[in-house]
């Protein structure tokens, strides 16, 4: 697979030079349904897990807030998706599975090899594995990270344990292969200085550069909003699953993210997205997808190739300490 993000309409740092030192490289993952192995970078695929290492379980409380809402096992969900793909699925009903008691086996979310894409952070490991508990912890799953040296794993766990049930079907990622692609990002406008925000909202510099943001109107506030939104949606932060880059904001204003152990400012590691693009970010749709769209399962969100949905359509962003891979990650829904 190969996916190519269309070039941005113009070099925004050429018009606003203050942005140039703020440019960061992000790696868009472009997950698409496939059949990954333990030796592939993937979303929702099998992990290169040592046979002699215990599989992680979540031992926090799992409270059932809606007793009448059935839960199903991961295999129940896989069978349901296969039935949807063949048009054989009807209305899903039945009592489902019993609500699980005790620790719950975590599910693989992502496996990333450094040979395929650069991994942020202080670890010299060449493999990052991300898992989560498929039950709500607040408004999101609880995650776990493992950094590894793949060459040290000689015996791989063949049949990892699975939870007897998952709270939501959208917490079970569809197995996907990746097509990593590097793009340049700039900060969300609310992370910029007040002066630069004002300059971005001013239609004048855009017009002087020959950039048509939208048709000029008699409403100055509307023109300023259009310029600001054009930068935010089209020029700053790429949507979808990605590694590194800048943090996407929207649910809240920017918040400090400091390591809970050493108070060092955390850096973006992985964005787990509900969709690869939406109505406000269609300019980031890969060129190949425009001519030959990847098929979606029925009842999928637009561009929801992984089947993951978080907090009604937001993203889960993981940040890590830049000094130690042993310090706990920070989870952020935006």
What can you tell me about this protein's structure?
The protein has 334 residues and is of the alpha+beta class. The protein has one domain: Hypothetical protein YwqG fold (Roll). The chain has six helices and 14 strands. It has helices at 12-15, 74-86, 194-201, 203-208, 220-236, 287-291, and strands at 24-28, 32-33, 42-43, 57-58, 104-105, 107-113, 127-132, 143-148, 176-177, 181-185, 242-244, 267-272, 316-320, 330-333. It has a six-stranded antiparallel beta sheet with strand order 10-1-11-12-13-14, with no helix packed on it. The model has no long low-confidence stretch (mean pLDDT 93). This is DUF1963 domain-containing protein. Residues 281-300 are annotated as: Disordered.
Please render the helix and strand layout as text.
Blueprint: H1 12-15, E1 24-28, E2 32-33, E3 42-43, E4 57-58, H2 74-86, E5 104-105, E6 107-113, E7 127-132, E8 143-148, E9 176-177, E10 181-185, H3 194-201, H4 203-208, H5 220-236, E11 242-244, E12 267-272, H6 287-291, E13 316-320, E14 330-333
CATH topology: Hypothetical protein YwqG fold
Number of strands: 14
Count of DSSP-assigned helices: 6
Largest sheet: 6 strands, antiparallel
How far apart the termini lie comes to 29 Å
What is the ordering of alpha helices and beta strands? Answer: HEEEEHEEEEEEHHHEEHEE
Return the structural class.
alpha+beta
Integer average pLDDT: 93
Mind telling me the CATH class?
A: Mainly Beta
Pick out the low-confidence regions.
Answer: none
User: How much helical structure, as a percent, in the residues?
Assistant: 10-25%
Overall outline: globular
Strand neighbour order, sheet with most strands? 10-1-11-12-13-14
- In percent, how much strand structure appears in the residues? 15-25%
The count of domains is 1
- The oligomeric state is single chain
CATH architecture: Roll
Query: Whole-number radius of gyration?
Result: 21 Å
Region (Disordered): 281-300
Organism: Streptomyces evansiae
Protein name: DUF1963 domain-containing protein
């Amino acid at each position: 697979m190969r996916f190519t993000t269309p070039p941005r309409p113009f070099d925004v740092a050429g018009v606003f030079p203050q942005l140039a030192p703020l440019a960061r490289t992000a790696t868009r993952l472009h997950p698409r349904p496939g059949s990954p192995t333990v030796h592939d970078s993937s979303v929702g695929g099998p992990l290169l897990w040592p046979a002699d290492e215990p599989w992680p379980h979540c031992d926090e409380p799992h409270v059932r807030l809606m007793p009448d809402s059935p839960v199903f096992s991961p295999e129940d969900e896989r069978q349901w998706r296969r039935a949807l793909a063949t048009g054989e699925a009807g209305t899903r009903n039945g009592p489902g599975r019993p609500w699980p008691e005790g620790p719950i086996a975590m599910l693989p979310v992502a496996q990333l090899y450094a040979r395929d894409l650069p991994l942020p952070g202080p670890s010299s490991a060449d493999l990052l594995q991300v898992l989560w508990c498929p039950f709500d912890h607040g408004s999101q799953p609880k995650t776990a990270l493992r950094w590894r040296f793949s060459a040290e794993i000689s015996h791989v766990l063949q049949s990892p344990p699975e939870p007897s049930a998952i709270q939501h079907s959208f917490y079970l990622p569809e197995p996907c292969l990746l097509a990593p692609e590097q793009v340049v990002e700039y900060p969300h406008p609310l992370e910029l200085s007040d002066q630069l925000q004002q300059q971005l909202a001013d239609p004048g510099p855009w017009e002087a550069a020959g950039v048509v943001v939208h048709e000029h109107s008699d409403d100055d506030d509307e023109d300023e909003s259009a310029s600001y939104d054009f930068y935010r949606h089209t020029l700053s932060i790429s949507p979808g699953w990605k590694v590194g880059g800048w943090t996407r904001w929207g649910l809240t204003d920017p918040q400090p993210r400091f390591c809970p152990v050493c108070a060092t400012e955390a850096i973006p590691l992985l964005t787990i997205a509900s969709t690869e693009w939406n109505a406000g970010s269609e300019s980031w749709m890969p060129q190949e997808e425009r001519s030959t769209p990847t098929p979606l399962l029925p009842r999928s969100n637009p561009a929801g190739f992984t089947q993951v949905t978080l907090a009604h359509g937001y993203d889960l962003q993981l940040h890590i300490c830049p000094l130690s891979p042993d310090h706990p990650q920070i989870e952020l829904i935006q």
